Amino acid sequence: MNDSRSAPRLEARLKVTGQARYSAETQIPGLLHAALVTAPIARGRVTDIDASRAERLPGFVAIMTHENAAPLARAAAVLHLQGPEVRFAGEPVAVVIARSPIAARRAAAAVDVVYEAEPAATDFDLFLGEAYAPRTAGRTPTDSLRGDPEDALARARVSLDLRYETAANNHHPMEPQSVIADWGPDLLTVYTTTQAVFAHRAAIAGAFGLEVEKVRVVCEYLGGGFGAKGGAWYPGMILGIQLARHVGAPVRLELTRAQMFTLVGRRQETRQHLRLGADGDGRLTAIALDTVAPTSTYAEYADAVATTARMMYACPNVATTHRLVRLNAPQPNPMRAPGEGPGSFALESAMDELAHELQLDPLELRLRNFAVRDQNADLSWSSNGLRECYQVGAEAFGWAGRPLAPGALRDGRRTLGWGMAAVCYPVYSMASAASVALESDGGIVVRCGTQDMGTGTITVLGQLAAAILDVPLARVRVEIGDTLLPEGPYSGGSIATASFTPAVEAAARDLRTRLITLASTDPASSLLGEAQPDLVLEDGHVRSLTGNRSESLAALAGRAAPGGLEAFAQTTPDPDRPVSAFGFGAVFAEVAVDPELGEVRLKRLTAAYAAGRILNPLLARSQYVGGLIGGIGMALHEATVDDKASGRVLGDNLADYLIPVQADMPAFDVHMIHEDDPHLPGGIKGIGMLGTVGTAGAIANAVFHATGVRIRRLPIRIEDCIVQA
Amino acid sequence: MTDPSREPRALTLRVNGVDHSLAAEPCATLLDVLRDGLGLTGTKKGCDMGACGACTVLVDDRRINACLTLAAMQEGREIVTIEGLADGEDLHPMQQAFIAHDALQCGYCTPGQILSAVGLLAEGRAVDLAQVAEQMSGNLCRCGAHPNILAAIAEVAGLRA
Ligand code: FES
Ligand code: FES
Q1: Which fold has domain A336-428+577-721?
Q2: Residue A76, pLDDT score
Q3: For ligand 1, atom 3, which residue shows the shortest CA distance?
Q4: Which residues of B are less than 8 Å from A10 in CB distance?
Q5: Best substitution site from B109, B114, B149 to test ligand 2's pocket, by max atoms within 8 Å of Cβ?
Q6: Tens digit of pLDDT for each residue in A535-569?
Q7: Model-wide pTM > 0.95
Q8: Nearest residue to A490 via CA among A452, A447, A443, A547
């Protein structure tokens, strides 16, 4: 890409040479190692723990159980080892600390635990009758109603009554969660895998009753997260910190891959009942969505599954509800495109079903239902590029050549299918601080206590400052991932960039002003006495527009600011933005299905997105493709399956839990539509989630177009696609 | 309780051209020894059971999952980890191509991807893109860097992307 904004990742060299250190790799002298003992039962209590065999093993240091763990303040999070109860299979009941990871694992296996099992709620279907209304659905209200959907459905020319299901998924960042805690005399230092160093610091301080200033959280490099290293990691992280206090030495706790199925959240499965009503031209007259999902017995979380049903299309009569069922199962939490991912699968499939019913092109149906404003929020859009996305994506894909009837396209023995879906994700942002400094050697340092999950945060932070100060990116150093830095945002929900951009830009502008002031007031400066409006920053110099005099930043700093010069800014989003802000997109899929074997091969994914200002097109494309691949996983591969009898996860490893691999990849064609959104600070919408929304729907619609078989359950399996001869 | 099968034993491993003598339990995997014994943390642990490829290293130029082999079995062999791939300051062409194609996001799968790619080229298996895609499918990437990874390998292998 020859866009000058497409800078390679600043930390790429460290990552390709193995020099980038991730949390578990922090080197601390005298580090001890922990291994968990987890419950095989889904509900009950621990009645006895016998560690005598473990204690005799070499390297054993200590064991912590509910009997000897110090109680913690409950406020922060659901915590482990605070009592004998077992609430889900896989819950930790003891932790062994030893001199090496091998010794810890071996000793943990030698701990004998006696349980008293109680009847557990482990089968979602059996408990659907006990569904209740949660307090919220994600960040949205539990239920919504506008107009009179029941009446409209009764009068609709065409109506559909459909049931969709999506599976539970696990995030599975490639880097397992880990924590190393080091209790110093005045400061607790925690090296951990976190999507939010500041939020995690607050959780730690709360649990241990410490002032936040007495806790430092560090996460320099983060090996992915996708939601599993946010609040879902609090219990494990706090347990690790407690271990270090228990033995009075630094301890490392690292989850095993199997434990990542139960201890760090999951995307909840859904059962969605969706009814659509439309007139004879396909204009929606009613949408009714009722969705049910499981939550645990000890915490409550509901994905905002109905978001797209509420606002994606113009419709006067819409009712949505979210309900939860309590199970003895691991607590669900947000995973990449939470809610919008599963919700858009149902809505976009149903739109395809409606188009088929009316013998309309699915894209034409969507255009007829374009929402000119957000009817759910009753606000106009801050900007909405959905129609351009439809147009650009359809043209690039060749959508106009799509035959209406399923099964009409062939490639040898395989049938081909084309499907599409509309995409949206809300714009979120939070308060952020940042600083930008000139160092005494003329280099620039950006400091922001946020994280880089692989999204490109380090690079765009540097680019934002470099652009305003007009210095080469190579002269900018970026510091993130540490609570000693200015407080930066959470990495997740596509929040980070929208939040830190205004702060970094404000700090950089302030520094620019101060540099210009310095250049015009420093007695030794060749620009002394120049009018400040006549001075600009250019290629590492302060330069006069009226003559050709200039001062290099290095010389200026060395002379007039030997300690460096730092500008700090803090920005807060406007709580009552008078517009509704979403990123939009359209995704088009081509599949080839072997009618006898049922094998689905995804051949092409074309997507177009309008999501505000793009800071680095190279990295943005990678983010979109990553999101699309997450959507492929939802559509065709991923399912976390709990055994209905025992409540234990079946196949809790990466050989049985399928994620898309290199051989599954289609050809990707991603288009980014330029969009200036004057309503949003910095013009940023956030892009990390968009790629995952809609993708499963587009793929399922393509499978229908190939086979004539409508699959309403994710993931789509081979046996679903065998076309009966 | 002493159990000879658990007593640490002296061991010499040749890693990145340097001999390292250390003591390790007979059951220690190469991955354990590289990361926790030698501090060579560029080799990543994603699953510890042979299912993700994050721990891929080269042993006598062949790809191997370091979590699936005992350190004791690799004595006398030439082990190359990501730390030893570059020639001083000069990156290996595969490392350069990964940077140029943005073939990494979080970077956690990256050392394994790069060594796997270098290994499959050395094994003469990169005959076409479909083969490369198949051969690289044991290296999981959760961020979704796949097409860029394939493009990087294609460039180094001289295949058309
Ligand atoms: S850590 Fe060795 S294959 Fe996953
Ligand atoms: S780059 Fe993150 S797992 Fe591959």
Answers
A1: Aldehyde Oxidoreductase; domain 4 (3.30.365)
A2: 46
A3: B50
A4: none
A5: B109
A6: 999 999 999 998 789 999 999 988 888 888 999 99
A7: yes
A8: A452
